[in-house]
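Run log // design_07
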């Protein structure tokens, strides 16, 4: 039994705890839980696939920006196989010399496929925007959702990943003023004997320092 003097204190403690555990409060804040670095903007594209859920975001260390990327791609499975195409994206974060000072970040990735070799921006540049290649829904049929990604660098060059060729590239996202520092993927969980699509959409975050 809680004494009369302890009851108000217990109620107050529960209210305080509840105020810090509101759904989405940590993710929506510019200073996310466990991260001291601030992001300045979120860049997205309008043509992402419809299946799955957003996974956790992963941020480059303080002072690092994404200078390159790798893709995890499931090879074509033929008939009657189940194609998943793009399964994951790695950002290669750099500060200074990209060959010697890098850090890799990954949001959730699908289980199928193999990772490609990194593609890098020239002259120490950073990734600033992206475009996603997505196959339209095929119902009934073998859906793949996201197939490939293009990135634009701060020096103006474009890098196209070694993904598959189903679907079309959509419009470019907005551009980060300095560079990309964080990514988040939308993944469909494995569905057993039913159709799998793996990665459906991508979201990137901009930092200024």
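design_07 sequence
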């Amino acid at each position: 039994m809680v004494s009369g003097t302890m009851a108000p204190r217990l109620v107050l403690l529960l209210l305080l705890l509840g105020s810090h555990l509101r759904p989405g409060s940590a993710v929506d804040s510019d200073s996310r839980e466990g991260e001291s670095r601030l992001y300045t903007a979120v860049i997205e594209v309008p043509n992402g696939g419809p299946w799955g859920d957003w996974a956790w975001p992963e941020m480059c260390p303080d002072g690092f920006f994404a200078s390159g990327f790798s893709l995890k791609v499931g090879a074509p499975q033929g008939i009657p196989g189940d194609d998943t195409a793009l399964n994951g994206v790695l950002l290669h974060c750099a500060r200074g010399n990209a060959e010697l000072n890098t850090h890799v970040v990954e949001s959730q990735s699908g289980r199928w496929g193999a990772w490609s070799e990194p593609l890098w921006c020239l002259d120490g540049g950073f990734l600033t925007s992206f475009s996603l290649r997505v196959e339209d829904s095929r119902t009934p049929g073998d859906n793949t959702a996201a197939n490939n990604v293009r990135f634009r660098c701060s020096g103006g060059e474009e890098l196209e990943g070694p993904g598959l060729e189903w679907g079309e590239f959509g419009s470019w996202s907005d551009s980060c003023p300095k560079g990309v520092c964080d990514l988040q993927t939308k993944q469909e969980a494995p569905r057993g004997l039913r159709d799998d699509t793996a990665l459906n959409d991508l979201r990137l975050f901009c930092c200024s320092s």
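Residues 120 and 149 are 14 Å apart (CA to CA).
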